[in-house]
Amino acid sequence: MPTSRRPDPARPSVDVLELGGVRLAEIVADPRVGTPSYVYDLDGMVADAKALHASFEGAPHLVSYAMKANSAGPVVRALAEAGCGADVVSGAELVLAMRCGIAPDAIVYSGVAKTDEELDLAIAGGPEGILAIQAESVEEIARVDARARTLGRTARISLRLNPALDADSLDTHRHINTGHDDAKFGIPLASVPTAFAAASASRNLTLVGLTAHVGSQVTATDGYLASARVVFRVAREARGRFPLRFVDTGGGFGIDYGAGCPVTPADFIRATRALQKEHGLDDLVLGCEPGRSLVGAHGVLLAKVIQRKVGDADRRWLMIDAGMNDLMRPALYQARHRVVPLEAAAGESLMWKVVGPVCESSDDFGPHELPAAAFGHVAILDAGAYGYSMASRYNGRALPAEVFLRGGQIVAVKERRPITDWVEDQLSAR
Ligand code: LLP
What we know:
Bound molecules: ligand LLP
Number of helices: 12
Largest sheet: 9 strands, mixed
């Protein structure tokens, strides 16, 4: 989380924004960096991962980092070193997880429509394959079985249940609400007996876990716990029949984007562990799949102010060089990220609509109170999750640079690719 301080009494009107102990103004001035650039505090991510581990109080657990939130190599490696496994959703993420040092035994693979090639990578990864391919339908169980038979191996699977929560019971945006009947995700509860039958009939599958994931940016525990209850109830039915190793209640722990977040990841884990115990399942590994809550608050997107536009009736736009292609969350989920000036100027503040250069009306970071006087750069806060990982090159724009901080200094930089890359790419079809 960026902090603001006033280290220089000679310039008392200037706040200095820092991340990971480094001044953001210094980072933006580095010739390798410029704008738009994501900056991440790896120490903050590791501290959050350690705090989450501690919330299990020594009980057997697996924190499978949902790599889709931020799949940059230094981030995944730092979280792997902090004891995290991975939740992957593609063959590419699976390969990356293993190349970042995550043991196959600590990887679960979620997501619908996995291809045969992707299933093969999971079944063949490591001596026993990955910890579990999370089957999202009865039909997928048969597909995994067929691939395992072809490869002459046994695949470990878990069943991702769809707990059929009321779509309104989760306090999150409808695009990231996955635990209701209409979602493409998870095995419907009515199909669980068929799924059990399919798993026990196969000699190429071992059912080792039961899981659910009901949504993201969840800021109250009720819906999460309702889903966990379903997982635990089904696990009790399964445990006499299958060599269950784990129950996994998913990710989704919300973060504070500025409007507050009353619960912490540790609150979710504490309440889930109590339920697990109530169900007599506390000898099983408890898994969770956090993405955003480990990385979101520890990243910012830096952008340059390109120009201002003042219209009639007090309409003001602050035009910056980062757009919806760099950070898609406001356009896609009406998400609000705080925008703060990097070099705060003295004097009065005004409301500015902060917008990017992309030719879409939704390329809009919303109204923000910012200095009336000119300033050079802004930081868009809490952009460590689902920022770069969802970025695109729409409108012929380059992907942003990425800067990684550790121990109060820059430890790695991924520079922005020149725009000629995009031009050549468009011309490369032969
Ligand atoms: N497990 C599964 C199976 C998931 O599908 C997801 C996220 C997670 C874990 C991690 O959820 P988290 O802890 O990060 O909330 N792009 C959206 C979020 C999409 C989440 C997709 N699934 C956003 O920017 O808000």
